[in-house]
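Fresh eyes needed here. Have a critical look at this protein's tokenised backbone.
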Amino acid sequence: MDKELKYIYDKVCEFAESALDGIDPEKTQVSFQLEKLKPVMITLSEELKIPVEDVFIKYMDAASEASVVNERKFQSTVGEMSKYGDPMQFEKF
């Protein structure tokens, strides 16, 4: 992730912690969530001198990259469970 993407991602995530506090993202419409994040995206747009739409696109790109990195970390920590067999299978005595 390049420097600008990381900056945008970090700023939006930081703002989202308070703006979306108590909101279940799976049960809340995306449009409502985006409306809550609009102030930070406008601020970043003015600061970086790019359109708000570009801030949103860059944030989504960064979030996708972060998701892949987190999934890789999770997989490397947990390992591939299938190579150890099904943990729910027990030997019958």
